[in-house]
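Run folding on both entries below.
>entry_1
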Amino acid sequence: HSALSELRQALESKAVALLAMREHGALELKQKLQAKFPETEALLAQSGESPGLVKRLAQEVVAHCAEQNWQSDARYVEQAVRNYIDKGQGPLKIRQTLQRTCKAPELIDAHLDLGVDAWLAHMKSVLIKKYGENAKVALRNERRSANDELKKMKKDGELTEDEEKKAQQEVQKLTDTFVEKVDKVVGEKEKEIMEV
């Protein structure tokens, strides 16, 4: 049965590697293990086991990971909900995604049943951050255009190298000032939303 213990060890090693990258729901982890280690006729013949071997071993490994507190559906659901909310996803889409990766409906319900006002606040916050990021990208694009124009002016002999460097520093200062203003407005708006 050394082939069986080697397979179990390989499954456990893969599970630990996956959990080291990010939290997984028990169902998702089991599915990934079964996909990574397909059950073949050769494997069954070598181990002397009946069909369902990999499924059974994957279930044992996932249970062992949960016992060791390496895997937790509660942690997974909490982190996933937070990440999906930050990406701007709503409760229905989050629920659908989690139901494919975790068989703990009570955990999913507990983390998603925030109430309409809380969801609206989250979505407003996501939109404000998004528009803030878009504004900062536009500022950086303007900085690049200005610097390109300065390089052209230097190349055409309209500016010396020192004048170009000084102008680029001034453009950077202006960019930094406006990025700070955007961050300040975004912070104030987020604070305002959370107080409502």
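>entry_2
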Amino acid sequence: VSRTINKQGKNNQERRFKNEAIIREKTEILYRDFYLEKAEKYTNDAIELSIIDFGINHFYTATLFANLGILQYEQSLYETAELSFIKSLKIRKKILDIDHEDIAETLNYLALNNRKLYQYENALKYHNEALLIMSRTIAKSNPHAMNERNRKGALYRASAMHTKALIEINNEVPKSGWIITKLIGKKIIIKDIIIE
């Protein structure tokens, strides 16, 4: 009897893993083809399965929450995306090394998302935290070799500098107008549109 129960449990788990793989594959196809709402639905399904199979504090669950945040970000659902990124970040901070690149990546997504919400101070805080992680990670590896970590660190630095520029611009803009900025090469073009 116990062998039958163990076999049934194993079959159920294998079936769930297979279903999760199918859902993940469908999500990737839908995302690639810009069916973001459907991809978001499948990602939510995959999160539910991941929580059942692995628990909330698992690498796969954190990754699925981050993927959900990206889908929501792509749909301009910034408030909802922030919640998904925060869930992913909390899990990743619990289960990963303090200087893990996935934590820095989630922080960078949070920063970009906060920029879309015009919460520049929060965005800069997240950028700086991501940069700190990347600088420690690069220092632990060969700091003179060009690799993926150096490239990511440079991208995060560039994003942080852009956020700093947005904060400065925001502080200088007349409260009665709108501002249009355009990044051309290394120059930022600023144009005030005063509404009367």
